[in-house]
Structure prediction request, 570 residues.
Amino acid sequence: MSAQLKPGQGPLDYARRPWIIALFALVLLFLYAPIASLIVFSFNVDKSGVWHGFTFMNYVKAWNNEQIFYALSNSITIALISTVFSTILGGMTALTLWRFRFPFKTAYEGFVALPIVVPEICMGIALSMFFNYSGLMAAVRDWVWPFNLINIIFAHIAFSFPFVAVVVRSRLVGFNRQLEEASKDLGATEFQTFINVLIPFMMPALVAGGLLAFTLSLDDFVITLFSSGPGSVTFPVKIYGMVKRGVDMQINAASTVLILVTLSATLIAMKLQAPAKSGH
Amino acid sequence: MDDWKDFKRVFLTLATPGSLWMLLFFAIPMAFLFVLSFSSKAVIDGEISTTAYDYMNTFQNYVESAGHNYLVLLWRAIWTSAIATALCLALAYPLAMAVCFAAPRWRPLLLLLLILPFWINLLIRTYAMYSIFRTTGVVNQAFGLVGLGPYEMLNNTYAVIMGLVYVYLPFMVLPLYSTIEKLDRSFLEASLDLGATQAKTFWLVTWPLTLPGVITGIILVYIPCLGTFLTSDILGGPNNWNIGNAIQNQFLESNNWPLGAALSFILMYVTFIALMVRAFLAKRSTGVDA
Prediction:
């Protein structure tokens, strides 16, 4: 019977219904046209919405724009440091929640997940208050780079590591604890078992969680805006300031570079996560 | 699972760093914000101080927050987020269906296409939106070619809603995809075999079974929309502020921190109410996964 049906007419053949295909195409256009236009116009000679000729000038200008360059290197430095610490803290938190029974565990789980659900702007201003009143905001101003970024780094770790914990914990659920017992039976200490059995098993989740932390940090605008002092501008904060003053093709050029960085990180993360084998 | 008492040293080593971090950079700042929301600027020698506060002495900030000016902004956040969420759902559901029912080898690619923009910086995406819809942007240039426009397409509530849909659509697609994927197709086949129409099958079988994914998607979109501040700031302009912009303004411009603190707590309460509604609905529904 199905042989007589044209494509898209099978009862469950939803993916080939013409209206769904049309909708899919329209949504992809809606999602990608603005980004494509941003990238294309980064090569335009002027800042109008009309194509007036190809140039690399915007990239050269953005590269030589000290403030953009400084903001971008700040962003990447913060993201790298925050990733390392978020991965460690997130991994440890995931292990705690996965391995142990302890009093008020449910409450603790909820507490650790709070940074994921609390509106960014609330966490941002809370941290801003905290840094101002603890004197950290004023103190770090004169510290040597990259230590003048330290409160942004603290803030980024605080909202990133709960995400890492979620990712790592969902992998740990698939761990067979008999492997641990076998290792200990064969004479390994607790610590050796941890290093040689548990860590290798957690590795794909640690890498994926780390890359998630990296993108979250690179992406963050709201919390950074509030926890950064006047001297420590990150890329999104800088772009925000420029956008407020109008369209400028240097923004397009710098954004294109950042899009490339994030998308490659994302695709690597997906590649690493894809073969979800349950053990080594 | 081990009891923490049997491995105290391991437990403490693993649990301390994260807990300490949460305490120092989340709990204490939040507690401080809470205290501040009940405080007022100190009056020293008859002058209102800009830096000192009298702590825990007033409800005035909440009274002011509940006043007309801020209720309007909160209400705007609530309804624009609701419309944006509804639009996301209406778009994402058929798309997620299409991905799940596509040939298996196409599925990862189709899903990736829908969620990839999520990884691009929010500010960059909003700016991209802004630059194509501004009066001299590509869209208006295209209108100009056929002798129309230019139209003012930004600085209104529609622009904010459109921006929110643009930014948060992937958040809706993902949970819908993962629920619809787990759906047992034989239920749909059975319903269709027994003579129900496609519409009836959808309404009586598919929709109820995928409700958990729908609820998760709604929460994942609605909550960040509520607290949004970039989208309404860049695409909406000052006349389309919502509560997030008001909070930002109290801190960075008006310099009335206690009022900003009270507004943030109100925003957090609304968020928690939304989460509780979700938990309640999830408990009642009997879909594919709870």
User: Anything to note?
Assistant: Residues 2-41 of chain A form one domain. Chain A has two domains: 2-41, 59-273.
